Amino acid sequence: MGKITFYEDRGFQGRHYECSSDHSNLQPYLGRCNSVRVDSGCWMIYEQPNYLGPQYFLRRGDYPDYQQWMGLSDSVRSCRLIPHITFYEDRGFQGRHYECSSDHSNLQPYFSRCNSIRVDSGCWMIYEQPNFQGPQYFLRRGDYPDYQQWMGLSDSVRSCRLIPHTSSHRLRIYEREDYRGQMVEITEDCSSLHERFHFSEIHSFNVLEGWWVLYEMPNYRGRQYLLRPGDYRRYHEWGAVDARVGSLRRAVDFY
């Protein structure tokens, strides 16, 4: 989730309106906009309703007057939260960097290594190999000053996938292949499938709603696998080498 606050007067004064998601018409809430504060996320603001007219990209920070976002007037009539992730070659957000706001199947032309990442908005899966292959890691909004922070094994990041936001999550797990054996339906995170359901292996999934991250060990540790809505009849269909599953987490940017 993001947070942006619009103020009618300069210097963050006057009537204000807070927003945490896309808004197609801000006119009922603001007569004008002369300053903006972005607490989290990256945003595109528009001079007209329905995401029309001149537009301006804002990242986290303070904008005490509309010249600070290179605006031409005090008109802000709609806004959109923009997914945003930045990859840095060196630790601590140093060195050459590359910004991304959507899926990218091959990041190799833009940086040779990745030792830190900043996620301003959105949930992402990053992959050690191009074309969404190899070990994968789930990232939500936050700062990752070195690759150990995302449980990475190396400084290789070669592709990334933006995970769509969904408001509901539901999946069914089965202890046998092809949806056979005992079945359990889950709608919340589960830190230990063995403790809660006495499952140490899961051989098939039916993801009914939302995107999920599967971990091979309890407490969200070990290899990770992204599960999108759909059917998984055998463990190799989600990319695993065996049926070990320790924990499951909804792919959302808050818990």
Characterization of the model:
The chain is built from one helix and 21 strands. With 255 residues, the protein is an all-beta fold. The chain folds into three domains: 80 residues, Crystallins (Gamma-B Crystallin, domain 1, Sandwich); 80 residues, Crystallins (Gamma-B Crystallin, domain 1); 81 residues, Sandwich (Gamma-B Crystallin, domain 1), CATH 2.60.20.10. The chain has a four-stranded antiparallel beta sheet, with no helix packed on it. A four-stranded antiparallel beta sheet has the order 9-8-10-13, with no helix packed on it. It has a four-stranded antiparallel beta sheet with strand order 16-15-17-20, with no helix packed on it. The longest helix has 5 residues. The model has no long low-confidence stretch (mean pLDDT 94). This is Beta/gamma crystallin 'Greek key' domain-containing protein.
